[in-house]
Amino acid sequence: MHPQRWGDPASAVELPESARGLVDLAFGLQDRPATTGATPPPSVLDDDLLDGLRTIVGREHVLVDDATRALRTRGKSTPDLLRARAGDLSDAPDAVVRPDGHAEVEAVLAWADEHRVAVVPFGGGTCVTGGLAARRDGFAGLVSLDLVRMKRLLAVDDVSMTATLQPGLRGPEAEALLAAHGLTLGHYPQSFEHASIGGFAATRSSGQSSAGYGRFDAMVVGLTAATPTGSLDLGSAPANAAGPDLRQLVLGSEGAFGVITSVTVRARRLPEVKAYEGWRWPSFDAGADAMRTLAQAGLLPTVLRLSDESETAINLADPSSIGGADDPGCLMITGYEGAAAQVAARREAVTAALTGLGGTPLGTEPGEKWVQGRFHAPYLRDALLDHGVLVETLETATFWSDRERLYADVKAALTDVLGEGVLVLCHVSHVYETGCSLYFTVAARQGEDPIAQWQAAKAAASDAMIAAGATITHHHAVGTDHRPWLAEEVGEVGVRMLRAVKAELDPAGILNPGVLIP
Fold first, then answer.
1. Active site at which residues (predicted)?
2. Rounded to an integer, what is the distance from CA 487 to the centroid of its chain?
3. Whole-angstrom Cα distance, residue 456 to residue 422?
4. What is the pLDDT of residue 321?
5. pLDDT reported for residue 1
6. Which residues, 6+ apart, have CB-to-CB distance to 340 below 8 Å?
């Protein structure tokens, strides 16, 4: 990935001509070209110190060149990209270290602990919550622990339907290895093409097919992790009553408690059939009520997503196909994957339920368009940033009874800070029997200081989430961006618990300092 953009540079897009007029009308087109030729500050780690790392992983796997260090600077939130576009690479690591296997990770952590060097585990670099910009104060330097060499499928259990994967595997790489055994994880977040297995686990990721396959943390049945004080090897059975589930303590810990070196995950057979389709609902409320009915009736398809009126009108190539440009309604996407007979039966049952609840079927075209474009939105964000439009996302989750209040309060908070010209879109991205996730996309004209502009909006939205009793994050983890609100979500005792675990596993505080722990 380029430090100033998302994903594969070969997949970068220009702002479509068809959208230029709309963007100009709404925000005014500006040219905000990225600064070129920026370089990271010089490394503060000298050769004598780095020789210890070279002994552990090999000289060729300890990299201090500017280009490699730049590529491991921060993640891919809009503030991260804006800082890089302005030429600010001040958070670049002093070295990029690439271990191969659990033992080498343990040895690197022991070296870092001895020399008081901060360590930031790095998978795919797709973090959007500031989780890759560790605090440097009080440390002799900072290294990026790049897990790119740890890309093996270690084991497959065809009887138990589990697979053991190393953390450096990107989503497509893991799926290709599993497909050779007739298996799949079915985990497809928007970051799928670039994010890693370790990142999925460390952030408790949730994919776009979560209605059918579940969240990633629910897939994990075992894991290994290296910490500065020893190793963890967890998951001796599919379920147990042996005290609190320590796997869940590591999942979502963002490298602050240890480095995940392998995960054993539940796998599924490759689906024989995949089918996606669209539905129209007259309002966001009506569509959300239909989703709740499906979830509570145990009738969930593999994919279930609902866009509000604004997102439906903006994102569809042909809004007239679902109700006319003046009344596009709300678009729901349903998807079905599995054995042919199972897909047919589930699709028939869901179709009958949605029709009875007032939905209008739109056929397969909207569903196929969604599948084709579901990983492309971050590339469009880059194009909009090029033209002076501030674009960012945030997400939350709540119980069904509080959904309407949360939706209204977050939209109002964003509008109050960013002004009437702001565009706030939303969709229900994940559903449960008891509640759902709301995923907001925000667009506004960039001000003189777009980073401060977004930080003010993010703070207002986060305050609104906490005030509404919702979570500060459903699937993007905590990082540094959400940390100020975590104490309000988990309470004083919860904060003390997190700090106690950190002190026990990482007493010198070298692991991703400043991330997660309030």
1. 439
2. 21
3. 14
4. 43
5. 65
6. 272, 273
DSSP 418: H
Beta bridge partners of 151: none
Domain of 304, in residue numbers = 273-374
pLDDT at 53: 97
Q: How buried is 68 (Cβ within 10 angstroms: 0-12 exposed, 13-18 middle, 19+ buried)?
A: middle
Tell me the helix, strand and coil percentages in the chain, rounded to 5: 40, 20, 40
For residues 310 and 328, what is the distance between their CA atoms, to the nearest angstrom?
A: 9
Question: Which pLDDT value is given to residue 324?
Answer: 43
pLDDT confidence bin for 152, thresholds 50/70/90: very high
Distance CA 482, CA 203 (A): 13
Asked whether residue 168 is domain-assigned, the answer is yes
Any residues with CB less than 8 A from the CB of 45 and at least 6 apart, and which?
A: 64, 94, 95, 117, 140, 141, 143
260 labelled ligand-binding: yes
Task: Report how many domains make up the chain.
Answer: 3
188 in catalytic set = no
- Tell me the whole-structure pTM to 2 decimals: 0.94
> Is 492 labelled a binding residue?
no
Q: Give tens-digit pLDDT for 278-330.
A: 999 999 999 999 999 999 999 999 999 999 999 998 874 343 344 445 677 99
Please, are residues 31 and 446 in contact by the beta-carbon 8 Å criterion? no
Q: Which residues contact 219 (CB under 8 A, 6 or more apart)?
A: 185, 187, 213, 265, 266
Domain-embedded: residue 330: yes
Q: pLDDT tens-digit profile of 163-195?
A: 999 999 999 999 999 999 999 999 999 999 999
Q: Is 259 annotated as a binding residue?
A: yes
Q: Is 226 a residue whose pLDDT tops 70? A: yes
Residue 403 structure tokens: 């959904």
Q: What is the mean pLDDT of residues 46-70?
A: 96
Looking at the structure, do residues 140 and 173 belong to the same domain, yes or no? Answer: no
Query: Reduced to 3 states, what is the DSSP secondary structure of residue 466?
Result: helix
The CATH number given to whatever domain includes residue 365 is: 3.30.70.3450
90-102 pLDDT per residue, tens:
999 999 999 999 9
Residue 398 clears pLDDT 80, i.e. is over it: yes
Per-residue pLDDT reduced to its tens digit, 399-451: 999 999 999 999 999 999 999 889 999 999 999 999 999 999 999 999 999 99
- Which of 188, 213, 336, 439 is flagged as catalytic? 439
Mean pLDDT of the chain: 93
CATH number at residue 186: 3.30.465.10
Cα-Cα-Cα-Cα torsion 346, 348, 354, 360, nearest 10 degrees, comes to 130
Which region holds residue 186: left if phi is over 0, alpha if psi is between -120 and 50, else beta? Answer: left
Radius of gyration of the chain from Cα atoms? 23
